């Protein structure tokens, strides 16, 4: 069997859960797949793994997929798909914890790659880009809820100085810490609920580029 010849690409490829290649330094909308996004986000833990459910000690994993599903409900319904997919680039470029992401030494090169992958995802699914304000509002309100509910905080530490999230608004959610497979299925279910004919008409369809 002859090997498939790839066109010239920028950078090196990564493996995806679908068994395909993806070039995070050269993302192309028609190579973005929702199943891949769902799988990768469901297996990526928030807060660099610093998670502990307060009532269930065995629940030490809180996925980007669960975060994204919750975010999709926090704002105007017409922007829910943007909120569901707002962290989609993490499926391809990973993520940096906020102390690094907001540091100038790390932010500039990472932001360039993140923006490229976000733009490819936005084109693929016909999203508003840059993302509307409801995305940032939902993300910050969720971060406040997450830090309150599932991020351990040792008593006696000063948690106010130097914090990198806005906790003036706390999302009215209960975080369950879904296991990865459940998170993937719930993410996909929410996507197909929002993937209306109107959205599809605005998207870059692999079958009709």
Automatic annotation (TrEMBL):
This is Phosphohydrolase. It comes from Faunimonas pinastri.
């Amino acid at each position: 069997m002859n090997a498939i010849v790839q066109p010239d690409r920028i950078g090196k490829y990564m493996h995806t859960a679908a068994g395909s290649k993806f070039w995070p330094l050269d993302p192309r909308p028609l190579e973005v797949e929702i199943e891949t996004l769902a799988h990768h986000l469901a297996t990526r833990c928030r807060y660099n793994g610093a998670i502990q459910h307060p009532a269930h000690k065995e629940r030490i994993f809180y996925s980007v997929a669960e975060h994204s599903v919750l975010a999709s409900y926090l704002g105007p319904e017409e922007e829910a798909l943007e909120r569901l997919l707002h962290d989609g680039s993490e499926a391809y470029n990973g993520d940096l914890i906020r102390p690094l992401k907001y540091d100038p030494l790390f932010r500039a090169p990472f932001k360039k790659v993140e923006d490229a992958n976000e733009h490819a995802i936005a084109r693929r699914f016909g999203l508003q880009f840059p993302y509307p304000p409801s995305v940032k509002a939902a993300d910050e309100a969720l971060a406040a809820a997450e830090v309150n509910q599932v991020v351990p905080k040792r008593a006696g530490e000063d948690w106010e100085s130097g914090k990198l999230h806005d906790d003036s608004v706390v999302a009215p959610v209960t975080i369950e810490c879904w296991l990865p497979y459940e998170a993937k299925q719930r993410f996909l279910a929410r996507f197909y609920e929002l993937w209306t004919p109107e959205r599809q008409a605005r998207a870059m369809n692999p079958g009709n580029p």
